[in-house]
Amino acid sequence: MSEGPDAGRLPRRVRKVGAQLVTRLWDLDVSGLEQLPSDGPAILCPNHISFLDSAFLTFTLPRNISFVGKAEYMDSWKTKFLCPAMGMIPIDRTGGTKSAAVLDAAEAVLRRGELFGIQSEGTRSRNGSLGKGRTGATRLAMTVGCPIYPVGIIGTDGIQPPNARAPRLRSAVRRSRSDT
Fold first, then answer.
1. Residue 7: what are its φ and ψ, rounded to 5°?
2. pLDDT tens per residue, range 8-32
3. What is the set of domains in the chain, with CATH numbers?
4. Rounded average pLDDT over 37-50
5. Are 160 and 154 in contact (CB under 8 A)?
6. 134 and 122 in contact (C-beta within 8 Å)?
7. Which residue, 33, 85, 122, 173, could crosslink 155 as a Cys pair with Cβ 3.0–4.6 Å?
8. How far apart are CA 74 and CA 132, in angstroms?
9. pTM: predicted TM-score of the whole model, two decimal places
10. Cα(48)–Cα(13) distance, rounded to whole angstroms?
11. Mean pLDDT of the chain, nearest integer
12. Is the Cβ–Cβ distance between 26 and 158 less than 8 Å?
């Protein structure tokens, strides 16, 4: 089994400083955090409408979280070192055994009692609609014996729409955990 990233000290430090910056630049409306476990493994399954979804979730959670991210982020000098240091698990989206390796790394993260985030659709929605979900989160939860929390993110597509080079400042974002 793969070791998976260790979302340790760097994410805590980045979250501490970054959260202050993020809340000054954007109006975040966060609810449902009290329903998340304070320790132990859990899978968070947010919808995915903007590049910023994982970042905003990282800055609003009280715990570190490791996320799946497309392997192409490893090709850019801007994200090659930061994304893995923040707990990103790169996924080769060509499918088959290459994509399955990410579940082994995610299992290691969960077995250490950490949070793992995966967008069930497997890719960003270009039109804001919820797409067909994939089964990876369910298989992981059954293997590890941990809960899954659906997370709704609203507004990040207005801050950084698909293909936008930079985010719009001072926009509103709403993130909440579903009660269903």
1. -80, 80
2. 677 788 888 888 888 889 888 889 9
3. 9-29+39-160+171-177 (3.40.1130.10)
4. 91
5. no
6. yes
7. 173
8. 26
9. 0.82
10. 25
11. 82
12. no
State the SS3 of the chain: CCCCCCCCHHHHHHHHHHHHHHHHHCEEEEECHHHCCCCCCEEEEECCCCCCHHHHHHHHCCCCEEEEEEHHHHHCCCCCCHHHHCCEEEECCCCHHHHHHHHHHHHHHHHCCCEEECCCCCCCCCCCCCCCCCCHHHHHHHHHCCCEEEEEEECHHHHCCCCCCCCCCCCEEEEEECCC
Between these two residues, 54 and 83, which has the higher pLDDT value?
54
Joined tokens for residue 97 = 């055994």
Q: What is the pLDDT of residue 19?
A: 86
Give the torsion through C-alpha atoms of 10, 29, 173, 154, to 10 deg.
110
Q: Which two tokens stand for residue 100?
A: 């399955």
Mean pLDDT of 51-66: 88
Ranges 58-62, 94-98, 123-127, 132-136, most confident: 58-62
Tokens 């001072």, residue located: 170
- Alpha-carbon distance of 19 to 169, in angstroms, equals 15
How many Å apart are CA 159 and CA 170, to the nearest integer?
8
